[in-house]
Amino acid sequence: MNTLTFSTSKNNYYSFLWHAVFLALANSFMDVDTVLPTMMLEAGGTAVHVGVITAIMIGGPKITQLVFSPLLNNKSVKKPYLLTGIGARTASLFGMGILFANLHALGSGMAITFIFILLTAFAFGGAFAAISYTDILGKSMKQESRKAFFSIKQSVNNVGVLVSAYLVGVILRTIEYPSNYSWLFVIAGIALAIASLGFFRIKEVIVEIHKLKGVSGFLSALKTEVRSNQKLKYYIFMVNTLGISLSILPFVMMYVKGQSDGSESLVGQFLMLKVASSLAIGFLMFWLSKKIGYSLIMYLTAGVGMLMIVLLLTGLASAWFGMLFLLGGIMITIYKIATDGVLMEVSSDHNRSLYVGISGIGNVIPTVFPIIGGTVAQMFGFEVLFGFLAILLVLAIYFIYRLDCQK
Q1: What end-to-end distance do the CA atoms of the chain give, in Å?
Q2: Using CA atoms, how far apart are residues 95 and 89, in angstroms rounded to an integer?
Q3: CA dihedral 24, 28, 29, 31 (to 10 degrees)
Q4: Which of 282, 293, 375, 404 counts the highest number of beta carbons within 10 A?
Q5: Which of 308, 29, 43 is nearest to 188 (CA)?
Q6: Is residue 22 within 8 Å of 191, Cβ to Cβ?
């Protein structure tokens, strides 16, 4: 066991930031909303295949964190497992690059099978790495530095999205299929490999841990922690309600398409507005990181979401739909800053790996909500859907109040 010093915390701050910078550059190359669905369809896949890939990339990591937590919780040194997870992700990206470079030699069925295998390895490698990442960040970076880190990380991510999104467009336009996707994945792999160099520089603080006896011990600990730690219970409730804020913008986009004939030409503008507001609020949160608490940030998230719904239900947004994407960028960014930081506060250095696994329970509703929301909108209309969203956000405000995060 060793002590966290200012020097160690500073070193780790910049090591994690190095990773965030280059990870941001890779993000658009693996975008689950645009690049991967298009790639799957061009490889001969169907809408069902696209749905499975989306589930693997979004819901899969959250579920598998519950599986990996019992294993990683009992390891006092997490850095080797962090490097293993990031290595699996990097290897998967290079594997995708090689696959598309030789796609013509494979049949459609074989190609799709390999795509599933490689993207599953990518997603599960991320889940494996995320547990160790959160644990090391929590115990190896001083508390007063974390909020600043989460804020600047979001800003860096948005800058990276701007740069990499432009590069993705250039590659897809100027290089023929399937070589264009081969280049996308190879460049993403290189960026992720460079990002992982930051993890090699991490100085991990070793603390005493509470070891669990297998899966049964994990489940017993899960039950005990949820019952005994009121903050954890309300954190799970809060994420399950406030987390639907991540799903609002896709429904707004569908609503705008139904209201505006020229919506297709506005997609790029809406994306830029969202990224610009995300970038601005990320830097603002970084500047205010020592003056603003997580509770206020969570209340702001719910408040911005409620404002968007009011603008939609009253028709005021129809004058300029772009304001919804400005607000959406703010809402998503501050939500991620708050939830990442609060998880650090409700857990301790001794049980953080366990809590990362438990936190997967808090993403059940946000994971399935897009399917439920789409059904509600189709059967009853967007007004009913937005009303349902408003109810969930009101519940989120109550859970934020009960969580009572003091940091």
Answers
A1: 26
A2: 10
A3: 120
A4: 282
A5: 29
A6: yes
User: Would you call 107 helix, strand, or coil by DSSP?
Assistant: coil
Structure token digits, residue 375: 């059904």
Cα–chain-centroid distance for residue 285? 18
Same-fold call for 6-143+158-200 versus 214-403: yes
Kindly state the tokens that stand for 227: 């019952």
Query: Both tokens of residue 220?
Result: 């017993």
Q: Return the top range by mean pLDDT from 169-173, 177-181, 214-218.
A: 177-181
> Per-residue pLDDT tens for 280-334?
887 787 777 677 777 888 889 999 999 998 888 887 777 778 888 889 888 888 8
User: Quick check: 263 pLDDT over 50?
Assistant: no
Q: How many CB atoms within 10 Å of residue 287? A: 13
Given a contact cutoff of 8 angstroms between Cβ atoms, the answer to whether 208 and 348 are in contact is no
| Buried-exposed string 240-279: b where 16+ CB fall within 10 A, e elsewhere | bbbbbbbbbbebbbbbbeeeeeebeebeeebbebbbebbb
> Which pLDDT value is given to residue 1?
47
- 138 touches 349 (CB < 8 A): yes
What is d(CA 221, CA 114) in angstroms, rounded to the nearest whole number? 37
Average pLDDT score over residue span 202-217: 70
Cα dist. 122→30, 60, 64, 324 in Å?
10, 11, 12, 33
> Tell me, what's the pLDDT at 262?
47
Predicted local confidence at residue 357, as pLDDT: 65
Interatomic CA distance for residues 44 and 34, integer angstroms: 16
What is the CATH architecture of 6-143+158-200? Up-down Bundle (1.20)
Confidence at 193, pLDDT banded by 50, 70, 90: very high
Q: CB of 40 within 8 A of CB of 103?
A: no
Domain range list for the chain: 6-143+158-200, 214-403
Q: pLDDT tens digit string along 85-119?
A: 899 999 999 999 998 888 887 777 888 888 889 98
Tokens representing 305 are 């979401």
Say how far apart CA 87 and CA 65 lie, in whole Å: 17
Inter-helix orientation angle 294-314/382-403, to 10°? 160
Please report the pLDDT score of residue 93 as a whole number: 92
Topology (CATH level 3) of domain 214-403: Growth Hormone; Chain: A; (1.20.1250)
CA separation (Å) from 154 to 21, 138, 332? 10, 17, 10
